[in-house]
C-alpha cells in the first residue's frame, strides 16, 4: 500500500550562484521534471546498456545476448564469438575458468563461459537456457523503458509542454462514453472538446507490452512503431507475448510534493550534512554547520510517488546529464536532454556536484 517515498538529500560542495540555484528549484517545484526512467534502469557499465540485451532477447539472438552479457564482465576490446572469446579469456588469464576473483563459479556468466568452451557457439538452445527467466524479464523491461524515454524526449522536443489532440489522460472516476479501458486502467483521448480541461501534467505515455495497450491517437503512436521497426521488431506484442509483460501508462511530467530546501555552510568536507535515522536513534550529535563555512551545501526534502526517481529530480536541479550516454566514449540512446529552461548563467557557473 506504499503511497510513495520521502527523501532527504544533501548536495555537498555546491558551486554556483544561490539566486540561480533558487530559480532552478522554484522551476522544479512549479513545473516538475520529465518523468524518465533513471539511467540505472539501463546501465551495465559505460559501454553497455541493458536495453541492447533486451532487444536481442526479444529477437532470440542468443549468441549476441551471451556476448553482450560477457563483454562488460571482462572488458573485451572487441566483439568476439564462441571459441574466439574463450581463446581471449584463456590468453588473458591462465585460470580464467577457475579464478574466483574473476567471477562466482556458479554465476550465470561462468556457466556461459563453460558452455562456450565445451560446446562452442553452435548449440544456441543451450545458450538460451543459460539466461534465467528473471534476467530475461529485466532486460526486456529495460527495453520497454528505453522506448518510453525515447518517445518522451521526442514528444516534448516536438510539441513542447502543452497537451495536443490525441494525447492520453486518465479518465475521471465517472468514466464517460469517451473512456477506453484495458487491464492497466481507464484512459481518455484529448479532443477539441476537452483539451481545455488538461495540462502537460495530465499527459500519459504508454509502455508497450504483451496486452492491448492503448496508444495516443496522434503522431506519437507512430513513433513507437518506427522505433521497434528500426530494431527489427515487426510485432512487439507477439515477441513479448511469451513473457507476459504488460504495458502500463506513465505520466510524462512529475512534480515532487512538499519540496523544501535550505543552503548550509560547513568546514569539514567529509562531514555528513544530514542526520540518518540511525544517528537519531543513537542520539548522535547533529552536523556541525557554521554560518561562514568554507563549503556550500544544499539540503532538500521532497516526496515522490512510486516509480518516480529522485535521480531525475536532482537532474532537473543540477542541469547535468547523469546518464551513461553523456559519457564521451558512448553513443547509447535515448537522449535525455533537459527541456525546461535553464539558467542564463554560463554552464560552468551552474550548480555542480563535487564527487568526494
From TrEMBL:
Residues 322-356 are annotated as: Disordered. Gene3D superfamilies: TruD, catalytic domain. Keywords: Isomerase, tRNA processing. PROSITE patterns: TRUD. Residues 322-332, 344-356 have a biased composition (Basic and acidic residues). It comes from the Eukaryota. It catalyses: a uridine in tRNA = a pseudouridine in tRNA. Pfam families: TruD. GO terms for biological process: pseudouridine synthesis; tRNA processing. Residues 32-255 form the TRUD domain. The keyword Manganese does not apply. GO terms for cellular component: nucleus. One of its GO terms (molecular function) is pseudouridine synthase activity. PANTHER family: PSEUDOURIDYLATE SYNTHASE 7 HOMOLOG, TRNA PSEUDOURIDINE SYNTHASE D. Belongs to the pseudouridine synthase TruD family. This is TRUD domain-containing protein. It comes from Daphnia pulex.
